[in-house]
Amino acid sequence: MVEGGALPDNQYDTLQRLASWGLAINPETRRVKGAAGCKAYYDSMVEKRDDLAYDIDGCVFKVNDFRAQK
User: Fold this and answer.
1) How many Å apart are CA 14 and CA 66, to the nearest integer?
2) Is the pLDDT of residue 2 over 80?
């Protein structure tokens, strides 16, 4: 338990909670649905890749539900 209750049970909401506590998370973090959502996100990152303030060598996609990750 942490102040204000338990952490969320999914990746995205946990990252948002960490950000609300002042921890840095990547501003390009998105929650997408399905293969089409992953492809659209990937395509958007390819377009903005050269304009980012940091180098990237790809994208990481994670299952949002922690139970399903296990």
Assistant:
1) 10
2) no
